[in-house]
Amino acid sequence: MDNNAKVFQRVRHDESEAEVDEEVDVLMSSDIVSAQMSTKTITFRQAFSGWVFKHAREERIGDYDVNFYLVDGMKLVSRKRREHLTADDIKKNKSFMQSLASGAAVGDEDFKSLQHRKSLAPPGRMPTTWEEYVGAAPGAAPPLGRAQILKQNEKNFTAIIGMSEDFPMHVDVLLDILEIVAPFKHLEKLRRFCEARLPPGFPVRVEIPLLPTISAKVTFQKLQFVSNLSDKLFFIPTSYREDPTRFPDL
């Protein structure tokens, strides 16, 4: 809903064939990326402010007193495969990432619909027998298609986390909500990590560097539990009109 314009739009679940083709073209012209964050070596240490007379870094965020910690040992392991890309695809992707990393403005022309292109020529038949395939060791099966072009990259970085013991929600409550919304096995790993290593309090601010000039920052400034919500909040007002083009990305 757009409360200023008093219009609403219903979420569309149907996609046209052209939109599906465009998404496939985007995927087939990009690296296949698998990223995983390693938490085995993560440690927390107190963050300090000041040059000469250093003191523990503390701030007031919203209604809460916050203590800041440095998160060391964060390791992002990414694996990329690109045997499905042409030389032109690799060149364009590299140029785009360099522009993004340098902080240069990315224009709309960089996100224009890609032209449909033909698939690469199929690879030659591999001289692999059935006996070799079924007798291979686990994780070491002989290649049956195009030879893999695999690249692995490990990046270590330090994040900043602000913990507040005044926040009216506990980390366990947040994890319980996430487990209901997305019951994945990774949440159990996150729960064990929070119970064993996370400093006391609730993380009201998390700042993680993504690129040399870009950081992601999440801040919780205020949380208030309300139980007497009006039923009117869950209905579209009669004065609102439907505009199917208000949010074109939906």
Automatic annotation (TrEMBL):
Residues 6-231 form the Ankyrin repeat domain. Its main location: membrane. Keywords: ANK repeat, Endoplasmic reticulum, Membrane, Repeat. InterPro entries: ANKRD13, ANKRD13_C. GO terms for biological process: protein retention in ER lumen. One of its GO terms (molecular function) is signaling receptor binding. It is found in: Endomembrane system; Endoplasmic reticulum. Pfam families: ANKRD13_C (PF11904). GO terms for cellular component: endoplasmic reticulum. PANTHER family: ANKYRIN REPEAT DOMAIN-CONTAINING PROTEIN 13, ANKYRIN REPEAT DOMAIN-CONTAINING PROTEIN 13C. This is Ankyrin repeat domain-containing protein. It comes from Cylicostephanus goldi (Nematode worm).
